[in-house]
Write a structure and sequence with these properties.
This protein is of the alpha+beta class. It is built from 10 helices and 20 strands. The strands form 9 sheets. It has a 3-stranded mixed beta sheet, with no helix packed on it. A 3-stranded antiparallel beta sheet has the order 18-20-19.
Length: about 725
C-alpha cells in the first residue's frame, strides 16, 4: 500500500512516479502537491460508458466523478435526456415497454423498466392430431402460433376399410392403408406359397375383404423364434398359421456371463436371448475400497470399482468426504472461511483465509465468560462450552439439610452427609430410609415399598405387608419365632403362622375337654386359655431327648467337680453346636482342612488367654472362596473376628482372638460329621497345656473308674445315657 495515495498494488514497485504516472521521479516544488507533476491528470475513469478523461491536476486517490453532459435514452428508447456522465441511475418514461418477448410474437406490456422483460406468460390451447387429448402450454418460440401436437396414445381412427382401426401412435395426416387389405397380402402367412396357387390348386376361398381369413398352406411355419443359440435360432414347428407363433417346446442351452449357471432351460421360460441370460448369484468379492462387498449379481468385473460415496467424517469434524469410496485416509477438508477467527474474548486473532476445522487461537488472558458463582475465574480463555467447574472450597448444606458440609467444592449443588434421609414419604406412614440423597425420595408415579409396621392383633408382630392404607390385610404372619424344649437345650425356629395354627388346634382340643367337663356338671376355669402367658410364641412343644439328658448330666458333673473354665461352664449345656450344612459338607470333603483350621483357631485362642496382649492373630494361607467362607464361619464358633485381605488369587483370611471375648467350642465340626456318619468313637486328643479342662477330665476319669468297681455290687437299674467325655476338645 502506497503511503502517499493509499492505493495497493499486487507487485512491489520498482520506480518512483507521480500520481498520474506520467513523470518519473517528480521534482518537489512549493506550488504543487507533494509527489505530483503539476500537469493535467488525464487518467481514464472506470465507468464503461464514460470516455472523458480526468481534467484536474495530478492528484492522489481516485479521480472525481465526470461532470460532462451526455444524452441518454430510457430503456424502451422513446425519450432522450441530457444528464451528467457520472450519473449511473437510468431514468424511465411513463410509456409501455413494447419490446418483443422470448416467443418472438408478443410484446411486453409492462411500463418502461430496466433489465430484461422476462418470458411470455400467455397460455396456448393445443389439441392432439387424433382429437382425444388437449393441453395448455406456455407461449415460447417453439409453441408460438401452434395449436396441434402429437400425444402418446394410439391413433385408433377408423381406416378406409371400415373394419380396423389405426394402431400407430398419434400422427399428423391420414392413416396408412389397412395391413390386411386384399391387394396387400399376396402370400400365405408363412410366405412360402402365393395365394393364387392356393386358389387354383387347393380350391381355397378367395379373399374379398380385409376381414376374410388368409388361406394357409400345409407346410411348417419355420419362422425364426427368439429362442436358441445365437446363429442357430429355433424355427416354429407349427403348420402355417396367422398371428404370433406358439411357444417353442424345445430347450435352449444357457450359460451366464460369470459361468455360475450352465444348464438347459425350456424356451417357454426364456425371457431374453441365450447370450444375455444372467444368474442371481451375488458377487462376494470386496470392492476396490476394501470396505464394501460388490454384491452385483452375475458379476464379471475385474477391478470392482466402488461407486458409493465415502461419507466418512473429515478431520474438521463438520463435513463429510464427498469423494468416491476409497482406501486410506480421506483428504483434508477443502472448505475455507474468509472471516477472522478469534478467541472468545477477541484478544487473539487468526486472519483469513482460515481452513475448515482450525481451532481458535490460544489466548493467555483469564476467562471473561459470566459464571454462576461469585468467585473469580482461575482458568484461561477457552473456546469450548461450558466453563470448567469452580473448585473453590465453600460450606454447603447436605441434600436433606441435616448439617453443613465443610470445605465442599463450589460446583457441587449439595453432597450427602452419609446419614439417613428421614424425609416423610408421600404415604404419610413411613420416612425415607435411604442414605442422604437428592429429591425425590420416591420416583413420581411409584408407591412406597416399605413394610407396614402396625402390630397384628393376633400375635403382636408387625404387619410386614407392603405399605397400604386402611386396615391391614388378613395374611399369615411370616415372622420366625423360637421354640424350646422343657430344659431349653433344643431349639428350633418356625413361622409364627404355623406356631399359631398349632396353638389354636391345641386350644380347641383343650376347650373341647373343658366343655365335656361342664356337661358332666364340673366347674371349669377358662382363664388359662385367654391369658397373655398362652401366646403362641410362648408355646413349648419340643420334647427332650438323649442329648438333653447328657447335657444335664454333664452340667451337674461340672458343678460337682467345680470346673472353673468359663467356656466349658457356659458351653457345657450346649454340647451340640449348631454347625451349618455348608461347614459340615466342607468337613466331609476335606477333613484335613477342618482339622487344620480347628487346631489353628484353638492355638490362637489359648495364646490370647495366656498372653499379656489384648489380642492375638493368625494368618491363614491363601485359599479359594469356599475355603475362606469355611474359615469365616468357623471363627464365629470360636468368638474370633475374621477379615479377608489382598486380591485374588492371593486372598487370605486373618483371624483375631480378643482376650475375654473368645472361647473354645465344646465339639469340633469334624466330630459332628463323624457322629452323623456313625463313627461314635473319636481318638482322645493329646493334652499339651495345663488348663482347668485337664483337671476336669482327670476327675471324670477317676469317677468312671470308681463306678466300674461298684458295677458288680449294684443292682441293675435303668442308667442315663453314657457321657462322651472326649467331646471337650483342646
Amino acid at each position: 500500500r502506497c503511503p502517499a495515495c493509499q492505493s495497493s498494488t499486487p507487485k512491489v514497485p520498482n520506480a518512483y512516479r507521480c500520481f498520474c504516472a506520467k513523470v518519473r521521479e517528480p521534482e518537489w516544488n512549493r506550488r504543487d502537491i507533494a509527489h505530483s507533476c503539476g500537469e493535467i491528470c488525464g487518467r481514464s475513469r472506470k465507468i464503461e460508458w464514460c470516455k472523458h478523461k480526468c481534467n484536474i491536476l495530478c492528484h492522489p486517490g481516485p479521480c472525481p466523478p465526470c461532470t460532462a453532459f451526455i444524452k441518454k435514452s430510457c430503456p424502451c428508447g422513446v425519450q432522450t435526456r441530457e444528464v451528467k456522465c457520472s450519473v449511473t441511475e437510468p431514468f424511465v418514461c411513463d410509456g409501455v415497454c413494447g419490446k418483443l418477448l422470448n416467443c418472438g410474437g408478443h410484446k411486453c406490456e409492462k411500463s418502461c423498466h430496466t433489465g430484461p422483460c422476462g418470458d411470455c406468460q400467455l397460455q396456448i390451447q393445443q389439441r392432439c392430431f387424433c382429437g382425444k387429448n388437449s393441453r395448455e402450454v406456455v407461449c415460447t418460440q417453439e409453441t408460438f402460433d401452434i395449436s396441434i401436437y402429437e400425444c402418446e396414445d394410439k391413433c385408433l381412427r377408423t381406416l378406409e376399410c371400415n373394419n380396423h382401426q389405426c394402431k400407430a401412435k398419434c400422427h399428423p395426416g391420414s392413416c396408412k392403408p389397412c395391413e390386411r387389405a386384399v391387394h396387400t397380402i399376396t402370400r400365405c402367412p408363412c410366405g412360402k406359397v402365393p395365394l393364387e396357387k392356393l386358389y387354383e390348386r387347393d380350391g381355397a376361398i378367395q379373399r374379398k375383404s380385409c376381414s376374410d381369413p388368409v388361406p394357409t398352406c400345409s407346410q411348417p411355419c419355420q419362422r425364426l423364434l427368439k429362442c436358441g443359440v445365437p446363429g442357430s435360432y429355433h424355427e416354429c414347428q407349427a403348420l402355417c398359421h396367422e398371428g404370433p407363433c406358439p411357444p417353442c417346446p424345445l430347450e435352449t442351452p444357457v450359460k451366464c456371463r460369470c459361468g455360475a449357471m450352465d444348464c438347459n432351460i425350456l424356451c417357454s421360460e426364456l425371457t431374453t436371448k441365450a447370450d444375455e441370460v444372467t444368474c442371481k448369484k451375488p458377487c462376494k468379492k470386496m470392492r476396490h475400497c476394501s470396505r464394501h462387498k460388490c454384491s452385483t449379481k452375475c458379476c464379471i468385473d475385474v477391478d470392482h470399482i466402488c461407486t458409493l460415496v465415502c461419507g466418512r467424517m473429515l478431520t474438521c469434524g463438520l463435513h463429510k468426504c464427498e469423494e468416491p469410496c476409497h482406501r486410506g485416509n480421506c483428504p483434508r477438508c477443502w472448505q475455507t472461511s474468509f472471516e477472522e477467527l478469534t478467541c472468545h474474548c477477541g484478544a487473539s486473532v487468526l486472519y483469513p483465509p482460515v481452513p475448515c476445522g482450525t481451532k481458535p487461537p490460544v489466548c493467555d488472558n483469564p476467562c471473561r465468560r459470566p459464571h454462576s458463582c461469585p468467585h473469580e475465574a482461575t482458568h484461561l480463555c477457552h473456546p469450548d462450552e461450558p466453563c470448567p467447574p469452580c473448585t473453590m472450597l465453600v460450606d454447603k448444606p447436605c441434600f436433606g439439610n441435616h448439617k453443613i458440609m465443610l470445605r465442599t467444592l463450589c460446583y457441587l449443588t449439595a453432597v450427602s452427609c452419609g446419614g439417613v434421609c428421614g424425609r416423610p414419604l408421600p404415604c404419610g406412614l413411613h420416612k425415607c430410609q435411604r442414605v442422604c440423597h437428592e429429591l425425590p425420595c420416591v420416583p413420581e408415579g411409584t408407591l412406597c415399598t416399605q413394610k407396614c409396621l402396625k402390630p397384628r392383633e393376633s400375635c403382636g408382630h408387625p404387619c410386614a405387608n407392603p405399605c397400604h392404607t386402611g386396615l391391614c390385610p388378613d395374611t399369615s404372619c411370616k415372622e420366625m419365632v423360637m421354640i424350646l424344649c422343657e430344659c431349653g437345650h433344643r431349639k428350633a425356629t418356625l413361622q409364627c403362622s404355623e406356631n399359631d395354627r398349632e396353638y389354636r388346634t391345641l386350644a380347641t382340643s383343650l376347650l373341647a375337654s373343658q366343655m365335656q367337663n361342664m356337661n358332666n356338671g364340673c366347674s371349669v376355669d377358662l382363664s388359662d386359655l385367654f391369658t397373655a402367658t398362652a401366646r403362641p410364641d410362648k408355646l413349648r412343644r419340643l420334647p427332650c431327648n438323649e442329648e438333653c439328658q447328657t447335657a444335664e448330666r454333664n452340667r451337674r458333673l461340672a458343678l460337682a467337680l467345680q470346673i472353673e473354665n468359663p467356656e466349658a461352664r457356659e458351653k457345657l449345656g450346649n454340647s451340640n453346636v449348631l454347625y451349618s450344612d455348608f461347614m459340615k459338607e466342607e468337613a466331609r470333603k476335606d477333613p484335613q482342612l477342618a482339622k487344620m483350621v480347628h487346631d489353628a483357631l484353638t492355638d490362637v485362642v489359648m495364646k490370647s488367654k495366656e498372653s499379656k496382649q489384648k489380642s492375638c492373630i493368625h494368618s491363614f494361607a491363601p485359599m479359594n472362596r469356599e475355603k475362606r467362607q469355611f474359615v469365616h464361619e468357623y471363627c464365629e464358633h470360636f468368638g474370633c473376628q475374621s477379615q479377608s485381605y489382598d486380591e485374588e488369587p492371593k486372598k487370605n483370611v486373618v483371624a483375631t482372638a480378643v482376650r475375654g471375648m473368645c472361647y473354645l467350642p465344646p465339639v469340633s465340626v469334624l466330630t459332628v460329621t463323624q457322629r452323623e456318619q456313625g463313627q461314635r468313637k473319636v481318638p482322645a486328643p493329646v493334652w499339651t497345656r495345663k488348663s482347668p479342662m485337664n483337671d476336669a477330665r482327670q476327675g471324670m476319669q477317676k469317677l468312671e473308674k470308681s463306678n466300674s468297681v461298684k458295677k458288680e455290687s449294684e443292682p441293675s437299674v435303668s442308667k442315663p445315657p453314657p457321657i462322651d467325655y472326649f467331646d471337650f476338645e483342646q
